[in-house]
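Need residues for this backbone.
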């Protein structure tokens, strides 16, 4: 009887050990190269970036780019390709109608504007963030990942 209990304990320990594997398989968001984007914040086309919480979408990147203004000196630039099943045809992130966060209506994942990290849904990885720099009133976006 003790051998059965010992075997059961060993089997239980091995089961727990393998069930705690935190390595979640990750499909990488594909890369798309593009020339540096230079945005003059003084142009009427970019008025939405003149106030905190404003955003615009651009066509560069894999599925497009979301440019979000946190404050006068901080801009966040994200790939619109969702990090959950990025090769699915519908894996495109949009700004939610509330304009409080970004979401992918295909998988129902939501993402934080300031970090790009998921806040709900099955996505477990952040959106790709692109490098940006502000020089005076010119915002430059490069195709280099910032995360």
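Answer:
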């Amino acid at each position: 009887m003790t051998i059965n209990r010992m075997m059961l304990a060993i089997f239980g320990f091995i089961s727990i050990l393998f069930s705690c594997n935190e390595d979640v398989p990750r499909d990488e968001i594909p890369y798309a190269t593009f020339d540096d984007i230079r945005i003059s914040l003084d142009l009427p086309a970019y008025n939405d970036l003149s106030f905190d919480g404003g955003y615009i979408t651009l066509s560069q990147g894999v599925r497009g780019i979301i440019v979000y203004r946190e404050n006068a000196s901080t801009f966040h630039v994200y790939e619109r390709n969702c990090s959950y099943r990025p090769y699915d045809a519908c894996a495109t992130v949009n700004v939610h109608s509330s304009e409080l966060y970004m979401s992918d209506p295909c998988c129902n994942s939501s993402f934080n504007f300031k970090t790009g990290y998921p806040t709900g849904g099955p996505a477990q990885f952040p959106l790709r963030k692109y490098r940006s720099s502000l020089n005076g009133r010119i915002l430059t976006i490069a195709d280099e990942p910032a995360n």
